[in-house]
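QA checklist item 7 of 12: single-chain prediction sanity check.
[x] sequence parsed
[x] length recorded as 78
[x] structure emitted
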Amino acid sequence: MAIHFPLGERRGDDRPSNGDTRHCPECGAATFEFNERYRLAPRSGRTVTVPAWICDVVNCRHVRFARRDDARAARKGR
């Protein structure tokens, strides 16, 4: 019988949490909000959820993905 030990938290203390805000790098407004489950609809038609920062300013709507792989996949259209 195998003994399982709980895994420690691997993520850093500076990891953002849902709802954290900061200034948008595009427009400068303090409405750049982190969302752990941002819905992305690539050209493949299959909706996926990814962690991302999103600006709430209507004329900006800048998005910055938390993971490099997600940003690359979004550019390619998955």
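[x] summary fact logged: Residues 21-76 form one domain.
[ ] second reviewer sign-off
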